[in-house]
Amino acid sequence: MIAQDVLEGKxxxxxxxxxxxxxxxxxxxxxxxxxxxxxxxxxxxxxxGESREAIEHFIDQAAEHASNTxxxxxxxxxxxxxxxxxxxxxxxxxxxxxxxxxxxxVADGMRDRxxxxxxxxHNRPAQAVLVAFGVGLVSGLGVAxxxxxxxxxxxxxxxxxxxxxxxxGRQLSDAIMSVLPQSMGGxx
Length: 188
Hints:
Blueprint: H1 4-9, H2 11-21, H3 27-30, H4 37-48, H5 52-123, H6 125-155, H7 160-179
Helix pairs in contact: 2-5, 5-6, 6-7
């Protein structure tokens, strides 16, 4: 026979099955199981006229069915969580692999640019020194102009200094790019 704690733990499922099996049972008959399994069986016997053995057998089957259903739900949830866990790990693995490939491509591209610059310097050392000197000189002048412009901008609230500075910055950048050979990233 079913234990009281098992009955209480699965009461909602068992209660529904009892009402389905014996429609004569009222809500009051099935309201509480606090009186114990004996009291429940006695109520069902009085209402339905069923034998004690038949009632005990039915309650045991209902409890077993409730356990099986709970086990199935538990297994289904567990399986779903396992599949979700595997899917997350696969997604992370793919993302990690893609990130590694991208990092490798960037590193390869940087290495190629460095080798191109190294070859250009090796093939034309005098031109490379002149270009580096010119870039340094123009950059220094540009920074000096920007700092001077920035000080003037702070001294006055006028926005035209900012436009002038931005314009000078663009001109400076264009000048540097036009002086550099194409092999070093310049424009012609």
